[in-house]
Amino acid sequence: MATRKESSSSPSAPMASTGGTLDSPVKQIQIEGLVVLKIIKHYQEEGQGSEVVQGVLLGLVVEDRLEITNCFPFPQHTEDDADFDEVQYQMEMMRSLRHVNIDHLHVGWYQSTFYGSFVSRALLDSQFSYQHAIEESVVLIYDPIKTAQGSLSLKAYRLTPKLMEICKEKDFTPEGLKKASVGFENMFEEVPIVIKNSHLISVLLWDLEDKSTVSDKHELLNLSSSNHLEKSLQLLMDRVDDLNQDIVKYNTYSRNLSKQQQQKHQYLQRRQQENVQRQSRGEPPLPEEDLTKLFKPPLPPPRMDTLLIAGQVNNYCQNVKEFTSQNLGKLFMAEALQGHN
Amino acid sequence: MSRFFATGSDSESEESSSGDEITSKAPGTNFKQSLLLSDDEEDTKRVVRSAKDKRFEELTNLIKTIRNAMKIRDMSKCLEEFEQLCRAFLKSKNIVDKEGVPQFYIRLLADLEDYLNQLWEDKEGKKKMNKNNAKALSTLRQKIRKYNRDFETEIAAYKENPQESADEEEEKEQEDSGSSSESEDDGGEEVSAKSFLKKKPEGPSEASKFLKGAKGSGDESSSSDDDDDDDEDWGGDTEESGSESSDDEEGKSKSLATAFLKKAGTDKGSIKKVEKKKKQKKERAGELQEGEGDDEDGPWEKVKGGVPLVKEKPKMFAKGTEINIPVVVKKLNEILQARGKKGTDRAAQIELLHALAIIAGENNLGQGILVKIKFNIIASLYDYNPNLAAFMKADMWKKCLDCIDELLDILFENNNIFIGENIAEDSENLNISDQQPFRVRGCVLTLVERMDEEFTKIMQNTDPHSQEYVDNLKDEGRVCGIIDRLLSYLENKGSTEEICRVYLRRIMHTYYKFDYKAHRRSLGLQGETKSEQDQEESEGEDSAVIMDRLCKFIYAKDRTDRIRTCAILCHIYHHALHSRWYQARDLMLMSHLQDNIQHADPPVQILYNRTMVQLGICAFRQGMIKDAHNALLDIQSSGRAKELLGQGLLMRNMQERNAEQEKIEKRRQVPFHMHINLELLECVYLVSAMLLEIPYMAAHEFDARRRMISKQFHHQLRVGERQPLLGPPESMREHVVAASKAMKMGDWRTCHSFIINEKMNSKVWDLFPETQRVREMLVRKIQEESLRTYLFTYSSVYDSISMQTLSEMFELEIPTVHSIISKMIINEELMASLDQPTQTVVMHRTEPTSLQNMALQLAEKLGSLVENNERIFDLKQGVYGGYFNRDQKGGYQQKQPYQRDQKGGYQQKQGGYQRGGYRNQNQSNY
To answer: Which intervals carry biased composition (Low complexity) (chain A) (predicted)?
Structure first.
């Protein structure tokens, strides 16, 4: 596993807009192997299908590097304990961990994902509140399905400072977003991840790898693709539908707006003419009126959701692209092998 | 003289509160029990009389106290009593409306006003009064002024009338002398009695045969006592006419008094009835007794034969009056005049008419008059219920049927009676002596139609699950019989229009009945004993033949659109009911009813809906699933089948309609025995939808734009899917849903077992007349459609499949399998070819995989996304300059086909794998 960590941490998507160059306080994330295993274990035990598991990351900041040294899961919610106090639980947990001398600083949270569908309003909101409270905090996205296919998929994301500002002002109008020049590409930044194990553990892993049989690694070479692709396409299609709806909504909005603008313009012109006439007759001009009252501009549809959907679509596309390129490679390899035999 | 005494007792009862009245009546009532008119009526009369008296007594008592108060100049008391009097007067308004304002009341008003004016003028007296009295005086004065304004004319009349005022003075004297205990009303009545006495001899000529008769009957000592009372009973009516005519002759000076007196006398009869209503309990009791009385009447008359009937005559006509046609007609008119008036006792009226009929029959006045009376009896039977919603009571209904039967009997026996609505009253000819035929105004057809409607109403208002309903339904035979008789009568005598109308009635009673006889006969041709056939044939012609004959006559002769429309619909319904699908369909199509039925009135629309439904069910039985589905779609898709077929109201509409509308809608309901089984209807619809939809769904699984054939069926499927736990199906719908699921997998055996089993047989299939045939058809259809579904769903799995195997799997003969597969290949539903030597189907494997399908869908969606995006872009530019915008758009549009072309090319490379849906869509895009 330790050998694979580098490949997964390489920033492949444009989603991560050159993580380190920005004036972000975190330029690199170093994760303990323990945390990775704990997250995987958590999903294995509690998450099934499209269900999502979440938890808290603990660690500390060293210069511009965030070290995640431990984590614990959020308990699953059930209807029975509606009065369950999450904050209380977290504080309790951290205090207990502190007692056994574990890093107890809150540095973010993790979440599992289903075929890479994680770009959502909920994630944005919670990550915003985290980042608002603790500047360095990150969200770790763990993709169990990709992991099952043979390569660990763990990614760390942070909101870009621009998005933080927008969220702070809660200005999601088209104008606001335009001014802040936030597109779906630069909403999140991906922070490179390094998985670090102690030397002793590394030695153990080497040892284990020698012992493991070849068949354990075969899943990486699985040629079947249609299932995964179908699922991705299905999800992608749903998003596209959503996007379509949003566009239609925006379309009507802008049409209404322009219609109103026209009316307003006409009204002003008429008024001006009247005033000119009055002036020629020597009468006082018409009193000023509040135009905003006369023409209430239609409520602009919030653009944040559209942005998020676009981001999600982009994410799916990247996933599919990555998957297909890998699969094509595998197919060619298989063909070559076939021919060789 | 007896008449005279009778009236005397009348006024007596008014005077005395009750006691002596009863004693004076007692002997009369005893006699009466042995007479036609039961004493019950007499009883109610007496009660009523006292009720009326009670009001007047109240008034007179109050008046008395007022007069007393006037005497002692107690103004406050006067005021108090006056107010009470006003209230009491208001209460007795009903009576007053009838008789006019009672004279004593007017008298008091006039006196009081005079008196008050006097007091007012008397300044000294006023000074003497205490404060309260003075105040009361002024208020009372104002009040009475105001109040009297309403009675100005009466008071003026009273003041002018010297006689009355004289009486008044007399009265005053009496009162002054101290005998104030006696009510002035008494005095008044006495006076009236006096004037009555005077009057009677004065105008004996006009007081009519009646009086004569009374005198005459007086001579007949034997029954004189009875006659007294009888006279009195009938007096009300006769006296009215008599007095009216007498008014003209008498001096004008007396006219007012007499008029009033007459009214008082005559109104008693009618007032009684008004009073009756007020006292409902009594009325009910009375009615009950009357009912019993009626029952007793019938047999009783028969037993007694002629003798007692002779005695009865005087009830209508005084003894010895020569009973001839004009007299009877006059009497009839008298009775009829009361018709529709507020206070008329409708039951009594019917009784009267019956009695009249009997009298007419007794005296051999000829059939003409009898027919006329019968007409009126039936009409008043219909009138018995005041509002349209109420239905006839059972006994009334029976009576009505009897009457109509009798009337028809008479009409059949006597060929020389002409009846018609257009014969004026004047030109009627009822004389028996004339050689000319009778001419009677009236229309049997209308009566029978009304009767038919009443029958429908009775059926509508009876609980369909009760024995009562069955009993009522037994009358249908009689109703049909009457209509049949009328039909044969009118065929000879009636105009075409009338014949059309009666034909329609006949049709209406025929079209919904399944002709088991004919059905059995048609089956019998194949192998039943001949004797049975002969027997059946002799029983009458097929309903189909009758329907055909009647309807064709209407098509040819009818000039009103409505009757023809109804006839056509009924004809179609009848055809459909008897599985003559092609005739039914052709008739429906030829009539073009579908185009303009929405302009028809609701009952016709209901009939249309019923016909369509029946047509659909018929198509289903014939195995024409698509036609069945189309016919039923309109009714079933709305989810208001119950309402549309007039078989019940929907609860959810309660808020939308008010009570009035609800009543109207209730009247439109189809009686229960004509209902179409809604479950059967729904089942037929769902099964036909299943047979159409499941293969279609399988064929278009990946088609983004596939349309649902039946929304309702999909709804049922969804409901089935939503069930958390799937048990064995219980209801009809669950069965169909379960069957659909099995069919989806191509599992026809399971599907079959779900559709046809014990439960479904009892619920649905056994309701068809040709159960076995329908079931066989259904099995066959299920097999075929399952095969199609199977091929659609699993063809991608096969490289080739032997027809032999398919034939075994679906238990169909190889030629059938061959034909089904060939059809699918021709329709390009199945990409395959047949390999003749090996009898196999070779799949072409051109179906896109699900991933490819998905990608195609995505491409389509992205296309629309881009389009939408472009539109936004256009708009953005449009704000700044429209010119560029248009240009650009054109450019874009030109680009579009290119892209599409590419796509098309790709598809073509794939080898025409795309299904009809895709192709169409492409074509529509170009």
So the answer is: 8-17
